[in-house]
C-alpha cells in the first residue's frame, strides 16, 4: 500500500463541509423506524464520503494502520452479508468473513473498479433490507448459518444496533481519511 503525503489543511473555518441530512425528524419515535432510518443514513454516508475522491485516494491510505477507503467499503459489504444473510437469515454465504489478501487486508484487486465495488455494496444493502423487512425486532436469528444454537442467536434488534454502530464508527474513519485527502470534513 502506498501512503500519500499529507497536505496542509486549511483552517477549520475555511474547510469545505459535507452537509448531512437528518435521518430522523423529531416526529419519528418508533424504534424500528429509527433503526432503519439511521442504518440507511450511514449506508448513504459511506458512499457520499467516497464520492469526489480521486481513484488514487480511494486506493491509498493516509492512516497508520494502512486501510484504504475502498478496503473499508469492501469490509462493509461483507458486514452486510455476514450479519444479515449468513447471520440473521442463515443463508449459505461462501467465505462469510470476506476475501482477504495474504497480508490479512480486505482484497481490492486493481482490476475491480470503484463503480463495481459500490454496486456490490448497494446490492448487499438491498438484500439486507429485504431480509429484515417487516420482521419484528424481537425475532431471533435463524439457526444454521452464523449461529449454531438457538441460545446463541441474537435478536434482530441487537443485530441492527450492532451494524448501526459499526457504520457510525467507520463513517467517522472515512471522515478522517477524507479530511486528510482533500480537507472536506463531515458534520
Describe this structure in words.
Pfam families: MST (PF04978). This is DinB family protein. It comes from Streptomyces synnematoformans. There is one protein chain. With 187 residues, the chain is an all-alpha fold. It has one domain: dinb family like domain (Four Helix Bundle (Hemerythrin (Met), subunit A)), CATH 1.20.120.450. Helix 1 packs parallel to helix 5 and helix 3 packs antiparallel against helix 5. The longest helix is centred in the C-terminal third of the chain and has 27 residues. It is globular. The mean pLDDT is 87.
Topology:
Elements: H1 31-50, H2 55-58, H3 69-88, H4 114-132, H5 156-182
Helix pairs in contact: 1-5, 3-4, 3-5
Q: Give the terminus-to-terminus CA distance.
A: 29 Å
Residue-averaged pLDDT: 87
Q: What's the gyration radius in Å?
A: 18 Å
Q: Which class do the helix and strand fractions yield?
A: mainly alpha
Number of beta strands: 0
| CATH architecture annotation | Up-down Bundle
Taken from the alpha-carbon principal axes, the silhouette is globular
Report the sheet with the most strands, covering strand number, pairing sense and barrel closure. Answer: none
Helix content: 40-55%
CATH topology: Four Helix Bundle (Hemerythrin (Met), subunit A)
Low-confidence stretches: none
Helical stretch tally = 5
Number of domains: 1
Task: Specify the CATH class.
Answer: Mainly Alpha
- What would you give as the CATH superfamily? dinb family like domain
| Element order: H for helix, E for strand | HHHHH
Region (Disordered): 1-30
Protein name: DinB family protein
InterPro entries: DinB/YfiT-like (IPR034660), MST-like (IPR007061)
